[in-house]
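Note to self: keep these together.
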Amino acid sequence: MASEQEKDTHRAVNPGDVISDKPESVEEKAQQLAVDSPDITGDHIQVPAYFVVDEPDGEEKALHHVKDAEEISDVIRQARVDEDGERKWW
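Structure:
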């Protein structure tokens, strides 16, 4: 069986794609980055690991960019609909 160090050395995912086992607050999750590096143009790119959205009851929820990608897409689609339910593109 591989040691814990070997597992970490051969991990095939980006560190920002890994979901922690420890409980974290929405605020802690909001601070995590999936990507924090320069791109090919030299611009420094930062991509959040979690997207914080407001729930209908007023609570905030942290959605992980990989695990919750479908729900993030649903939230974006809802944001593009006006009060009459008509899709708006801007």
